[in-house]
Amino acid sequence: xxxxxxxxxxxxxxxxxxxxxxxxxxxxxxxxxxxxxxxxxxxxxxxxxxxxxxxxxxxxxxxxxxxxxxxxxxxxxxxxxxxxxxxxxxxxxxxxxxxxxxxxxxxxxxxxxxxxxxxxxxxxxxxxxxxxxxxxxxxxxxxxxxxxxxxxxxxxxxxxxxxxxxxxxxxxxxxxxxxxxxxxxxxxxxxxxxxxxxxxxxxxxxxxxxxxxxxxxxxxxxxxxxxxxxxxxxxxxxxxxxxxxxxxxxxxxxxxxxxxxxxxxxxxxxxxxxxxxxxxxxxxxxxxxxxxxxxxxxxxxxxxxxxxxxxxxxxxxxxxxxxxxxxxxxxxxxxxxxxxxxxxxxxxxxxxxxxxxxxxxxxxxxxxxxxxxxxxxxxxxxxxxxxxxxxxxxxxxxxxxxxxxxxxxxxxxxx
Length: 415
Hints:
The protein is mostly beta strands.
């Protein structure tokens, strides 16, 4: 514990100013200590590098356009971003965005999917869910859309497509982007019932770009069921739709997967006695030859509280191979560096503090009780920390694990 306290103190002194900022508190109930009752006004008031802490409640969608901010839900709170479509776009190469603990982003009727577009700087999304309840109309049916993003990471997130445009939307639709995902679920919606046959979407659709996945599930949607109906005493039927692929990769897409599962969507049934045809089941993976690399080994992870209040105690939870030694890199600087040899994407950039807290137990777990130090005099209100574990296997081979971020908050600004 003393080693960890010292490492955090050194990091605070070495952290670049861009990672530090003021704290704004959003509370739908306008509780004590809050600054705003919705997220978008807080974004308008914040300067780049600031942190927006969100208490439990129901909030409107928001847009981050060419901004460098962290929007973090309070630990244990139910933060629902429900009304409209949330958008993150035009993140510059020297900017970065962090979203954590936001639930059901863009859930609602007749809205487009939440999207991340034209992001040159790193985007970190942790403990968020994306689900759209569309049906009909001309709206985007996917759970989340990523387009032209150079470094976007999803940690413990879940996405679910919608029923729209006669199709079941994909859980994730990505175009020309570099994506890293740990312990996520990408699930497509089933195709709607009726005519014409409604096919389901894939769990994830990757059009070019790169995807690293560790401990993830990719689930294709079930094909839409055929429909039997009677008009003027005559019974009719419609054909069933095709099931979606677990993962659909097209173009020059490349996928590196570790300890991840791919499940094909089942075919939609139909009334064959009336001459209608069932759909065709999807494939677990539909990709060009050589596009998918399946690495051997287990997914490994770290989980931190979303906020670390100076002067308080916290617990870090690690999971991996039994008895494996582990080291933690703690950084205020974002990074996105894939290494096949390390079986992961490094997200904790230099300069970083490195320490070795011990080894995992026989079950492959380690819980660390940590005392968070007080911030030095003159420190900013908040600082975003990126923490990523590296595990050593029995052969001495080092592999990376799932990262986790936390906002280190001055005692006087803690929610």
